[in-house]
Amino acid sequence: MSRSQTNPKAEIDDHLANRWSPRAFDPRRPVERERLLSCIEAARWAPSCFGDEPWRFIVADRYSEDELDNWKNLLDCLTPKNRAWAQHAPVLIMACASTHFRQNDKPNRWAEFDTGQSVFALCIQATSLGLITHQMGGFDEDMARGHWGMPKEVEPMSIIALGYMGDDLVLDDGLREVENKPRTRRPMSSLIFADRWRTPYFRQED
Amino acid sequence: MSRSQTNPKAEIDDHLANRWSPRAFDPRRPVERERLLSCIEAARWAPSCFGDEPWRFIVADRYSEDELDNWKNLLDCLTPKNRAWAQHAPVLIMACASTHFRQNDKPNRWAEFDTGQSVFALCIQATSLGLITHQMGGFDEDMARGHWGMPKEVEPMSIIALGYMGDDLVLDDGLREVENKPRTRRPMSSLIFADRWRTPYFRQED
């Protein structure tokens, strides 16, 4: 499943190396209930500042009869471009950050950061179970806020498509091309610094 | 190593279940160079909005002679409470979020979120190698900005202590007590919602 160009000098864990964000979901294969629960359980165990656990999730499984309407509502929030392929994902999950600490109602500047950690735990758990995930930032926040009645201190961050990999023939030509490009990342020298900002930490170029 | 009270109905991947945030670092055991590189490599492969890769890291290994001063600078940014135990960590890493998109210089509202994903990848890679991590939000941001000459659009988020587990006798009595408490998390019903905010998704209480 992996198409990453990881550094051969630095091997990384399979689940981290194999995680990527495909668009070709199998529309006919539901996510088993226990597997969905495991993904959510993984999200719960992320670390957070002052143990606030600022992450919140809205979950909908279109294969569960009484969740179909909610799944459609999540799909409706997406941009048309995302909806084109995300309509095949059996499960949609919206990740939100609660931006004020529970203990004192002061702003939590780590709310989004910690929510990102929690979402990544969910994605890694999914990968470990043979599932795929694809996060989307392209959705209508106001529609989401209104629809689910979110308190104002909540920030919707990402809609996660969850399911099994399908045939890329479900994608149009443009998306299929994107889907089959190798994964790349910026060189370490532009991201990892030593004693001054932009001074590369690793001297040997990666 | 795990002390988590995870849900027996929802098994999660070992590296996710075993990751926690100890304070008892072994001050005499350095992190092997290849292992440090693997942790950083893992951080690179996180997903990000528009592939912006907004994460930046400042890395210092106190066992590397020419990095000792930088390691001390990272330590100096910490609150005294954090410094008390983090002084034993062989590697300190500051994670920062670059808050404007590279492609158009517009604000990136996912910068912190994506940086959180990247940091969590680093922590999971560390766990998979038998290392421990502990993130700290308690540090002097202005000192950090000034010291490393960060551009104003950069947000320092977390200082990560990285190393091997040591004897908890390096901790004072108060911290040792905290260290040995079981890990807990909030119930799913307060975090995972269905068709309305605060309506629990999983009906059976976890």
Task: Describe the fold and architecture.
The structure is a homodimer of 206-residue chains. Chain A has seven helices and five strands; from the N terminus they run H-H-E-H-H-E-H-E-H-E-H-E. Chain A is an alpha+beta fold and 206 residues long. A four-stranded antiparallel β-sheet of chain A has the order 1-2-4-3, with helices on both faces. The longest helix of chain A has 18 residues, at 111-128. Chain A is globular and about 55 Å long. The two termini of chain A are 23 Å apart. The model of chain A has no long low-confidence stretch (mean pLDDT 94). At the A-B interface, helix 1, helix 2, strand 1, helix 3 and helix 5 of A face helix 1, helix 2, strand 1, helix 3 and helix 5 of B. Strand 5 (192-193) of chain A pairs parallel with strand 1 of chain B.
Helix/strand layout:
2 copies of one chain form a homodimer.
Chain A: H1 14-18, H2 33-44, E1 55-61, H3 68-77, H4 80-86, E2 91-98, H5 111-128, E3 132-136, H6 141-148, E4 154-163, H7 173-179, E5 192-193
Antiparallel strand pairs in A: 1-2, 2-4, 3-4
Helix pairs in contact in A: 2-5
- The SSE order of chain A reads HHEHHEHEHEHE
Largest sheet of chain A: 4 strands, antiparallel
Percent of residues in helices of chain A: 25-40%
**Beta-strand content of chain A:** 15-25%
Low-pLDDT regions of chain A:
none
Mean pLDDT of chain A: 94
Adjacency order of strands in the biggest sheet of chain A: 1-2-4-3
Instruction: Quickly count the helices of chain A.
Output: 7
How far the N terminus sits from the C terminus of chain A, by CA atoms, comes to 23 Å
